[in-house]
Amino acid sequence: MLLNPGISRYEGSSEGHNNPMKPWSALETKAFYLNGASPGPDSGEKLFFYDSPPDGKLPPGKVRAPVFVLIHGLGDEADSWRHLIPLLNAGGFRALAVDLPGFGRSVTRKRISMKNHSAAVLKLIETAAPGAEIYLAGNSAGSIVIESLAFKRPDLIKGLVLIDGSIPGGPSSPGFFILLRFLFSRKWYRAYRNVPEAAWASLYPYYADLEAMPPADRSFLKKRVMERVESRKQEDAYFATQRSLVKTYILRSSSFAKKVKNYKGKIILLHGERDRIITLSQAEAFKNLRSDIRLEIIPGAGHLPHQEKPEKTARYMIEFAEF
């Protein structure tokens, strides 16, 4: 990758984090920082991202690699896409995967919100992939980030891949999100710092079968979950994003529904068959907004099908972009 003045290589520094998060080994050489990641004067902000080019031939009829921009969910990082990225590259697609502001290795000094998450992703696209054919993929809360961006810049975004998440289509009552604000208290979050076994167990609801993941994944995730809960910056980002998510759901669900109907790009929903976080009925409610929205169920996957069933997830995404 030819670096432009706003991009630098990631050298392993995670300013503001107690434990710098080491990239997944296969992605270490593809790690970068977008400097000044939010609009306005540069105040030391850095957006961490992976930039992984295609492996060879391009998709049929393409003279330049299309780009999938991958956005993680609440409390996750770009490494969530570690198994999906090489599969997209093998299909002729370039992949950009980010740590949203405040998460993982990204550094922000601005207020964390869904709006600012979308603004940071937009700046990355404009800086790292100007003029490219762009598809956005978001998991869980990340799907709301990409919806917001697509509605703001429909001219820029060719299509959306919503993986186990969207607005509208979340829990049936906004009261669920209000309740989450009390359930997911900082006291609860911080308690994991002294009990690694409990921190590991907190991941179980997000997977169909966490123990069936390969040993390298389990080892990586055990270390990563502790890096998350031990980081004050990650904690702040988690709760600020959660508050913004609640507000977005309560105040903007109806406007999102209208914008989904008016959005000219393509949309596909990918949903883990055994998702315990977002039910299939909620995905079906979103699908009913437009007759052309596809819904594909991924067998044997929970809330993170791109981790548990990356081959199936990648196949659906590539087919979606090509046709």
If you had to describe this structure to a student in words, what would you say it looks like?
It contains eleven helices and nine strands. It is globular, with a radius of gyration of 18 Å. The chain has one domain: Rossmann fold (3-Layer(aba) Sandwich). Helix 3 (about 140-150) links the parallel strand 6 and strand 7 (about 155-165). The chain has helices at about 85-90, 115-130, 140-150, 175-185, 185-190, 195-200, 215-230, 230-260, 280-285, 305-310, 310-320, and strands spanning about 5-10, 30-35, 45-50, 65-70, 95-100, 135-140, 155-165, 265-270, 295-300. The chain has about 325 residues and is an alpha/beta fold. Helix 2 (about 115-130) crosses helix 3, helix 3 packs across helix 8 and helix 4 packs antiparallel against helix 8. A nine-stranded mixed β-sheet has the order 1-2-3-5-4-6-7-8-9, with helices on both faces. The longest helix is centred in the C-terminal third of the chain and has 31 residues, at about 230-260.
Uncertain residue ranges? none
Total strands: the figure is 9
CATH class descriptor name: Alpha Beta
Shape: globular
Give the proportion of residues in helices. Answer: 25-40%
Stated plainly, the CATH topology is called Rossmann fold
Number of helices: 11
The average pLDDT score comes to: 89
Beta strand %: 15-25%
**Sheet/helix structural class:** alpha/beta
Helix/strand order, N-terminal first: EEEEHEHEHEHHHHHEHEHH
Strand order of the largest sheet: 1-2-3-5-4-6-7-8-9
**CATH fourth-tier homologous superfamily:** Alpha/Beta hydrolase fold, catalytic domain
Q: Judging by the overall fold, what is the CATH architecture?
A: 3-Layer(aba) Sandwich
